[in-house]
Amino acid sequence: MIGATGRTCQGQCRPMSRSTPRPTACSGTSTATRPSLAAPLATPPHPWTGQPRHVVLATSFGQGHDFLATWQAWREDAQRCDRLIWVALAAHPLAAAELARSHQAGPHAALAERLITAWPPATPGSHGIDLEDGRVQLLLGWGEPTQVLDGLQLTFDTLALDEGAHPWDDDACRRLARLAAPGARLVSEGVSPALRASLARHGFVDDRYAPRFHPVAARGWARPTSPARREALVIGAGLAGAAAAWGLARAGWQASVLDRHAQPAQEASGNAGGLVHMIFNAPDSLHARWFRAAALATAQAAAGPLSTGEVAGALDGFLRLEPRLDAGKAQSQRAGVGLPQALVDWREPADAAALAGLPLTTGAWLFERAAGWLDPAGWTRWMLAQAGVDAVSGRGWIGGCAVARLLPPRGDMDGWTALDAQGHVIAQAPVVVLANALDANRLLPDGSVAPQISSVRGQVTRLPADLPGLLRPTLPLSGQGYGLSLPSGEVLIGATTQHEAPDASGRALRLDDQRHNLRRAAALGIVPAGLDASDALLPGRAGWRAVTPDRLPLVGPVVDAMARAALLATGRARLDGPRQQPRRVGPGHGLYLCTGLGSRGITSALLAGRLLAAWVSGDPMPVDTALRDALDPARDLG
């Protein structure tokens, strides 16, 4: 075994001086019993002692034995790190039933049961699982190992290398070295001479010699600066701001949330309900991949508050009507993308009608998992509460304050400074997150690149439970418009889409928009055809959504326009993609965006907050680099 500690390791690594950071390994051979890769982690002294977090990259998840053993050791260690993050590769998705069989009578059966409860569906891509209230995090990368490695953005402290899981050639070892933290260790159940030579070429050394090694950072990635004060100010208390605060708290940061309203969720996040669902495209697009990952992450986090009644909603199914498809085309598309039938399946018109409780004449995609609806205001308040923010007590909350200007750090200022219209200081923090929708660009300091954000007015209508002829959908559905049943007996329908700038008069309900929503509801069979909004006083709500041209959120550090111009002026800088752009981050400070969630904000928010926190804290990115770049505020620069 190559490793820093452990009974099966024949060699012991010498302590490293701080001046010579390098990945390290000590030599040894495997035993006949093939000892667990977790032994060096699970056996004291634990490598995570004294660390705020410890990141393990495992090149094979197997049946989860190593992860469960390490999780158990972490639970039993009084000096454990604050957070244990285990990132595992697997060529093929592991079914929950197979995982259950492997641990039914094992030493970690109780932990395995908790893991199985949160186990994701068998779909390619990255899947995050939170355990121990987020203090133990498992990130699964399902797919061809080399491709998954290329999509990872992380810095590992321990590499658990399973040589038998994949042919780890010289190129693969180079990829692994790219992700190594200074002083990272490697553990393995025996290493062939060829692999040992490849590892040595890329900086992994044993205790027989110690050449200097400095891991090469991923080029162009704006790495977080890890300020001494892990404090952030989030401006905006809708879904985006609440999710940013939640993500930062999960990463060990303290977030204060500031909003111009006295209470959270007073803008578009204040509707009575909203849809949560993935989308399906063939071939699989970045949009589809993002919303699938976002819906799964939201469903996992929402399971608890839904079961306790803290948040209203239900994630037990959703129908997406598709009049241009039939069963043959639909099943061919699903099979081509490789999604399991349990996640998304085609239903013919009669089946769709029975599921919805409506007289539908169109077939539909049925999303049975991670789909349904949530109360956006309740979801916002829950995420804020998880971040330690309470608008009632004032803990972590700065309400009723409008930010007029945002000043960047300078010698006499403690980080970024938010000022009101009179020039008075409202708050200061080393890190600021602009999650205030359409107002985000206004607060960008001079010398920043402002991404494209536009405003879309939307109006929803609430149909009273006693409305004559009303049929309540038994599952949320959408086609041309959407409908969902609320716990009050009402049905929420909508929503209009009008590209116009926000103004006070736009908050008033418009009769034409109510009629538009009713016509669409009639097409879904929710109300009788010909029902006119003027015949009844129908309640509703209007607000503005912040949308981007490609309908994906903006999540990441702000681009420094002045630094970019200076680099371009040299004629030598390569700035042909988001990873090469200079950012508004520096020693101990940073300015970030989390906005542009658009009409699918309830689905996107939580994963966007997790992605934002990874940018700030240096945690492993929860999505691959292609998705990270697709949401980067610098994505249109090149």
- The rounded Rg comes to 26 Å
Pick out the low-confidence regions: 1-35, 208-223
Do you know the CATH topology of the domain at 231-267 and 382-453 and 550-631? FAD/NAD(P)-binding domain
CATH hierarchy class name of the domain at 231-267 and 382-453 and 550-631: Alpha Beta
The residue fraction in helices comes out at 25-40%
Profile the largest sheet: 9 strands, mixed
Class computed from helices, strands and strand pairing: alpha/beta
Question: How many strand elements?
Answer: 28
Q: What number is the mean pLDDT?
A: 89
Q: Could you give the distance between the termini?
A: 46 Å
Domain FAD dependent oxidoreductase: 232-615
GO molecular function: methyltransferase activity; oxidoreductase activity, acting on the CH-NH group of donors
Keywords: Cytoplasm, FAD, Flavoprotein, Methyltransferase, Multifunctional enzyme, Oxidoreductase, S-adenosyl-L-methionine, Transferase, tRNA processing
Region (Disordered): 1-50
What does this structure look like?
GO terms for molecular function: methyltransferase activity; oxidoreductase activity, acting on the CH-NH group of donors. This protein is an alpha/beta fold. Among the domains are: 39-201, 3-Layer(aba) Sandwich (Rossmann fold), CATH 3.40.50.150; 231-267 and 382-453 and 550-631, FAD/NAD(P)-binding domain; 455-544, D-Amino Acid Oxidase, Chain A, domain 2 (2-Layer Sandwich). The protein is built from 16 helices and 28 strands. The strands form five sheets. Strands 11, 12, 13, 20, 21, 22, 23, 24 and 25 form a nine-stranded mixed β-sheet that branches. Strands 7, 8, 15, 19, 26, 27 and 28 form a seven-stranded mixed β-sheet that branches. A six-stranded mixed β-sheet has the order 3-4-2-1-5-6, sandwiched between helices. Helix 8 (239-250) runs parallel beside helix 12 (376-386) and helix 9 packs across helix 15. The relative contact order is 0.13.
